[in-house]
Amino acid sequence: MTRRLITLEAWARARYAEGGPSRWTLRKWAREGKIYPHPEKHGRSYYVREDARYVGDYNGPAFMEALRESTAT
């Protein structure tokens, strides 16, 4: 099943209220692997699945929960 990819900025607008993360912060999160599933870089832009989540560290509870949810479907 192919999932639709959207820009990081569109993802942030859908996930956060006004005053969400800046474009610079979003790109930093993408580079550091803090969004799961990982965003893909196409040219100069990052694209991410609509259902992606900010998970922070790979050892954190949010990552483990996101991993469990992704393998359950």
What features would you highlight for this structure?
73 residues, Multidrug-efflux Transporter Regulator, Chain: A, Domain 2, three-stranded antiparallel β-sheet, two-stranded antiparallel sheet, 3 helices
Quick description:
The protein is of the alpha+beta class and 73 residues long. The protein is 41% helix and 21% strand. The protein has a 3-stranded antiparallel beta sheet. The chain has a two-stranded antiparallel sheet with strand order 2-5.
The CATH homologous superfamily is called Excisionase (Xis) protein
Under the CATH scheme, which architecture would be assigned?
Answer: Orthogonal Bundle
CATH topology: Multidrug-efflux Transporter Regulator, Chain: A, Domain 2
Query: What percent of residues are in strands?
Result: 15-25%
Instruction: Specify the overall morphology.
Output: globular
The number of distinct helices, counting runs of at least 4 residues, comes to 3
What is the first-to-last residue Cα distance? Answer: 11 Å
Overall structural domain count: 1
Helix percent band: 40-55%
Radius of gyration: 12 Å
Mean pLDDT: 84
Low-confidence stretches: none
